[in-house]
Write a structure and sequence with these properties.
single chain, alpha+beta, GMP Synthetase, Chain A, domain 3, 4 helices, globular
């Protein structure tokens, strides 16, 4: 038996895999496009979704670089962040079920004032996942 995180912060996915979102959030914060991230899981689904507060200036600069160099199909901001998170997951050798398959952008920073973080600066899972 190996403890990977606090028991209250572990999700069970549809296929029976257990995921510790706190560990994954720390890993995915390595992305230069992400300022804050919240990993959400649903026991009826077999994949994870990330709610991301992007570093807008870095993201827009990367989008402009892609637009200037590639004459290919345009990529959305969500796809760009998702590709970056998938690259980090591959680099960290995460299990297939630990890879984020969807990205949503938060409308504002997570903070104590808006209720999305606790006074100890941890993400308020009850509030953010609503």
């Amino acid at each position: 038996m190996r403890i990977i995180g606090r028991i209250k912060h572990t999700f069970k996915l549809a296929q029976g895999e257990f995921v510790c979102p706190d560990r994954l959030q720390e890993i995915f914060l390595q992305s230069p496009l992400v300022d804050q991230i919240y990993i959400h899981a649903d026991s009826l689904k077999a994949f994870l979704v990330a709610i991301v507060v992007p570093l807008t200036n870095v993201l827009e600069a990367r989008m402009a670089d892609i637009k200037a160099t590639a004459g290919t199909v345009p990529i959305t901001r969500e796809q760009l962040v998702l590709q970056d998170l998938e690259a980090i997951a591959k680099q960290q050798q995460l299990a297939v079920y630990e890879i984020v398959r969807g990205v949503l952008f938060a409308s504002e920073q997570f903070s104590v004032l808006n209720g999305q973080m606790t006074p100890s600066n941890k993400i308020n899972r009850r509030y953010v996942s609503q």
